[in-house]
Every structure is written in C-alpha cells, then in structure tokens.
Amino acid sequence: MRGGTSKGAYFLAADLPAEPAARDELLLRIMGSPDARQIDGLGGAHPLTSKVAVVSPSTDPHADVDYLFLQVAVDRADVSDRQNCGNILAGIGPFAVERGLVRAGEEETAVRIRMVNSGDYATATFPSPGGRVEYGGDAEISGVPGTAAPVVIEFPAGASALLPTGRPRDEVDGVPVTCVDNGMPTVLIEAAALKVTGYESPRDLEEDVELADRLRRIRLRAGRLMGLGDVSDTTVPKLTLLAPPRQGGAITTRTFIPVRCHPSIGVLGAASVAAGLRIEGGVGADLAVISPESDRIRIEHPTGFLDIDSSLKATPDGLPSARRTAVVRTARKIFDGTVFPRAVAQPRGGHR
C-alpha cells in the first residue's frame, strides 16, 4: 500500500514469525535487502519505499488494532523498530478493514490505532460508503500524483515530554537547536547556522560532505541529550533544517532521515516541527510565520507542503505540551497477493 508519501508492505502479524529475529530475517528477504537496488524483492531502493507495517487485533481497550512499524534498511541487513511512521500509518485503518479486523461503517469508518513502537495512539477516519473502503477521492497531498480519498489522522497528546531535554533551546556542537518529540524525536536547526540556505534540493544537501559530517555529530550528541542513548545505529532523532517560508506557508524545511534528505517530510516529523514552532524561545519561533488565530500550520518541503493542525498547552511545571495534533493524508491499496521471499543464502562452497 501507499501510505501518505511512503510505500510499504502491510502484513497481518499472524502471517509472520512471532520471534523478532526470524521475522526480520524473513522481511529482509522479502524486501530484497541488503542491496542498493533491492532488485530481488519488493523494496523500492529508497528508505521511503522500504517499509513494513505489521498489524494485529489489539488487546488494549483504547485501540482496535496494534500497528508495529519496521524500517527495512536498503543496503544493510538491518530492520529497525526504533521509530514510528506517520505516512504508513495512513494505510493502517483501510488495511484493518480489508483484513476483517475492523467492521466498516456505512458512510465512514474510524479506526483506533495503537502504535506499538512508542505506545502512542492515533485515530484514522476515512470514507467507507456501503461498508467498503473507498480509495478514490479529491484529496491531494504534495509528493503524490493525483488525488485520493482523505484519511484524517488525529493524535491525542502522548505520554512523552514535548521537550525531552526540558529546555526550549540547547547548544549542540556549537549550534543552537530545539529538541522536540510530538510523535517523532526531532532536532530543529536553523539552516543558516550550518551555512546553507535551507532551500537547496535534497540531492545537493546529500552531496555536501562537510554538512553530512556536521549533521552526524549533532545527531549523535542530541540523541544522548534527548535520552535516546547511542543513536549511531538508529534512524532517530530526525534532523530538520528550518528557513523562512517562500510559498506562503509557516516555515521551509529540509529533513534528514537520518542520512538521506527526505523529498518531502514525514507526518510525525511534521507534527514535531509544528509543535516546535509554537514553543517560545525555540529555534523556529523567530523564523516561522504563524497566525495566532488558527491551529493550522503549513510546512513547506522540497516537493510542496503539508498542513498540520497543532496547538499546545502548559503543564503544571510550566513546560509546553501538545493539546491537539491532526493531519489529512491519503492511502491506496496497490496490490493484494502472495509474496515469494528470496531463498535463504547458502554458505559459500555449499550446495546450490
């Protein structure tokens, strides 16, 4: 399925091995990793198209289904569950209905989802006329050709601190940053502080060796500050470079995931950016153009924009926390069938 601006393989948990190591080994063979082209599997040779959703009925009274997101590395034999994915999340509700985990409503369906990776929750609401998922519609999102039915995803306030360091601003490797987590651990950095404009193409930013080295150092140090420990082998926190808007939005962004530069921006990453822009004293507060009368924040990215509804409230200790976060995405079923995984590799010199 395509979920938002990502694409992945969606599985029922019961159809995969229960033991994580065996499951991950199978998924590497299904997706065609490790191989830069993923020529022998379902993967699309990019982190945004090498994703997996594992879905099961939930025993949590606050959820209908459990959703485990797995990021399958392209050129490494690695499967990570250290982060959520808000784009793949957009397909979870329709998939749950398709697989009989949730009964569709006659007009629309709301599916309560527990994101196993973090323990957070989301509710996805989408049209289902006549009790069947409707994928066609007139909702348009940047980075996806054409239109589709809207999937409205609302996130209740999570249990984690919006400011993991307890401060609206920190200095990491000599650069002011704001570390924020509104569903995705994210480090906000003013692009100019790294001697780039923030308007460069993703390819140009990826080819900047000096910038890549600086971002790596910042990410490793920020990860420890945010309580994530050694993040050298993980995909979080994400790093988002900020610049003043150019197309009438609130802010311009370039996001690293964590090495490749995102051609757009992830849903949960955008939710964290939007909340971060509202934090007084934060890195983005002086760059963003935000209307005080509206919760809507338009985040510009390399291929367009993403609208997030975001509002904050104060906690008893005076720190900000999320009040409401919602986004409109789309999803589409691309293929439903049987995948034949690559055979288990034989030791060199063994039988063929």
UniProtKB/TrEMBL annotation:
One of its GO terms (molecular function) is isomerase activity. Pfam families: PrpF. Its EC number is 5.3.2.8. It is an enzyme of class 5 (isomerase). The keyword Glycosyltransferase does not apply. SUPFAM superfamilies: Diaminopimelate epimerase-like (SSF54506). PANTHER family: ACONITATE ISOMERASE-RELATED, ISOMERASE YBHH-RELATED. This is 4-oxalomesaconate tautomerase. It comes from Streptomyces cinnabarinus.
